[in-house]
C-alpha cells in the first residue's frame, strides 16, 4: 500500500464542473476549458503513487497544478472526480470522499503541512508555535514540552525556544515550521515550496538539513518546487506537471536521461549530470564483463583481474601475476581515507555512487572502479569511458 496515491483525479475551480469534466475527457487544454466554461482546470487525469518513506517532488512552472494536487492530499482542495488515497491507521482512506470526522483525524495525526510563508503565529514564542498542533489535540503541558524540546533540538533551535518569531531570520522561521510539522509525528509531510522565499545559501543549507533529517526519521514527504536543482537534489521520485497534467514521473536519472517530451527536455537540458547520475546509470554491468574462471577481467589485454567469491564479492586483485591492493570507499559520496586511496591499485565503491564522486575516486587509480551492491556483490565497472558518456548523457552507446 502506497502512503499516498492519486487515482485519476480531476480538480476544477468554477461553477460549470460538469462541462469542464466533459472537456477534460475530450483532451482539451486548460485555456480551451476556461474559454468554453469559465472554469479553471486545476488538475486532469492525475495518477501517482508515493511510497512510504519516499520524497516525491511535484514540479513545474507556475500554474502547472503542483500545489493544487498537493492540497488535495489533506482536502484543502476538493476533487471533482477520482480518488486520493492516504494510508491512515493501516488502511487506505479516500480523503476526497471520507466523512468529516475521519478527515479531521487524518489532518490531526497522519498528514502535516509546511507552508511557503511559514504560517507561524507572531504573538506566540518559538516553543508555543512548535507545540501548537499538540495543544489543539489537548495534550498535557509536560508531554507537549518534552516533544517540543526534542523537535527544537532536531532543527537546532533549542536556544531560541523563548524568542518570538519576529526575532528570527527567515531560515530560522522555516526551521520552526519544520519542527512544528515534526512535532505532530505525522507520517506524511506536505511541503509547499517551503524554501523558495529564502536566500540561496540558506535554502541550500535547509535542503541538506531536510535530507539529513529524512535519513533519521523516514517520513513520507510530498514536496512542491519550481526549481529543478532542488527537485533533483531532494526527490526519490519527481513528477513534472504542465497545464494540470503530469507529463513525466520517475527518478532524477530517468528524467535527465529519458525526457518524455520537449517540455521536459527543455527543463533538463542545462542540468549538470554530476550530482544526478549514479553508478547504476553509467556502469558496465557485471553480466557483460569477460570472465576467466572465478575472476572478472578488468582490462582489454586480460592482464588485470579481480577474483570474486561464489556470490560475486571481490576478493583479490591480480595485476599480471602480481597481487594488487583493493581499497573500499563508503557511501554515495565515495568517502575514502587519503592514505588508503593513495596506496590502492583499485577502488571498490557502492553502486549508488554519484558520478561526481566517481570522478574524484578515479584520480587515485588507473583501473575501473568496482561498483558493488548492498550485499557486496560486483554490480559493474565505472571507468573513464562510462564517466565521459555520463557527462555527455550518451549512456546507450
Automatic annotation (TrEMBL):
Species: Ancylobacter dichloromethanicus
Native organism taxonomy: Bacteria, Pseudomonadati, Pseudomonadota, Alphaproteobacteria, Hyphomicrobiales
NCBIfam families: ABC_choXWV_ATP
Gene Ontology BP terms: response to osmotic stress
InterPro entries documented for this protein: AAA+_ATPase, ABC_osmolyte_uptake_ATP-bind, ABC_transporter-like_ATP-bd, ABC_transporter-like_CS, ABC_trnsptr_Choline_ATP-bd, P-loop_NTPase
Quaternary organization: The complex is probably composed of two ATP-binding proteins (TmoW), two transmembrane proteins (TmoV) and a solute-binding protein (TmoX).
Key words of the record: ATP-binding, Nucleotide-binding, Transport
Family: Belongs to the ABC transporter superfamily.
Record-given protein name: Trimethylamine N-oxide transport system ATP-binding protein TmoW
Amino acid at each position: 500500500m502506497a502512503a499516498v496515491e492519486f487515482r485519476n483525479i480531476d480538480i476544477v475551480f468554477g461553477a460549470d464542473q460538469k462541462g469542464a469534466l466533459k472537456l477534460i475527457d475530450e483532451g482539451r487544454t486548460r485555456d480551451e476549458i476556461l474559454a468554453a466554461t469559465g472554469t479553471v482546470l486545476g488538475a486532469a487525469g492525475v495518477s501517482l503513487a508515493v511510497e512510504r518513506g519516499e520524497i516525491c517532488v511535484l514540479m513545474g512552472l507556475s500554474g502547472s497544478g503542483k500545489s493544487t494536487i498537493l492540497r488535495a492530499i489533506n482536502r484543502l482542495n476538493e476533487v471533482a472526480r477520482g480518488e486520493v488515497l492516504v494510508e491512515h491507521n493501516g488502511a487506505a482512506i479516500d480523503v476526497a470522499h471520507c466523512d468529516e470526522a475521519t478527515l479531521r483525524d487524518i489532518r490531526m495525526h497522519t498528514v502535516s503541512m509546511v507552508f511557503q510563508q511559514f504560517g507561524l503565529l507572531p504573538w506566540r514564542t518559538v516553543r508555543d508555535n512548535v507545540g501548537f498542533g499538540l495543544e489543539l489535540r489537548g495534550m498535557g503541558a509536560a508531554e507537549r514540552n518534552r516533544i517540543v524540546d526534542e523537535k527544537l533540538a532536531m532543527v537546532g533551535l533549542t536556544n531560541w525556544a523563548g524568542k518570538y518569531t519576529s526575532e528570527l531570520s527567515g531560515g530560522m522561521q522555516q526551521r520552526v515550521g519544520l519542527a512544528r510539522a515534526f512535532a505532530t509525528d505525522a507520517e506524511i509531510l506536505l511541503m509547499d515550496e517551503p524554501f523558495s522565499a529564502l536566500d540561496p545559501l540558506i535554502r541550500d543549507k535547509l535542503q541538506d538539513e531536510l535530507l539529513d533529517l529524512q535519513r533519521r526519521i523516514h517520513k513520507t514527504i510530498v514536496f512542491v518546487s519550481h526549481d529543478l536543482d532542488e527537485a533533483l537534489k531532494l526527490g526519490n521520485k519527481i513528477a513534472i506537471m504542465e497545464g494540470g497534467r503530469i507529463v513525466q514521473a520517475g527518478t532524477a536519472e530517468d528524467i535527465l536521461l529519458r525526457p518524455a517530451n520537449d517540455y521536459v527536455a527543455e527543463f533538463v537540458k542545462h542540468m549538470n549530470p554530476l550530482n544526478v547520475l549514479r553508478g547504476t546509470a553509467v556502469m558496465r554491468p557485471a553480466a557483460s564483463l569477460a570472465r576467466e574462471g572465478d575472476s572478472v577481467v578488468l582490462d582489454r589485454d586480460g592482464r588485470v583481474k579481480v577474483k570474486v567469491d561464489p556470490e560475486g564479492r571481490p576478493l583479490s586483485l591480480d595485476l599480471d601475476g602480481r597481487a594488487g591492493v583493493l581499497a573500499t570507499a563508503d557511501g554515495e559520496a565515495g568517502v575514502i581515507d587519503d592514505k588508503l586511496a593513495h596506496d590502492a591499485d583499485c577502488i571498490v565503491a557502492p553502486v549508488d555512487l554519484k558520478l561526481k564522486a566517481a570522478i574524484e575516486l578515479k584520480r587515485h587509480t588507473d583501473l575501473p572502479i568496482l561498483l558493488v551492491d548492498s550485499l557486496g556483490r560486483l554490480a559493474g565497472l565505472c571507468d573513464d569511458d562510462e564517466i565521459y558518456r555520463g557527462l555527455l548523457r550518451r549512456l546507450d552507446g
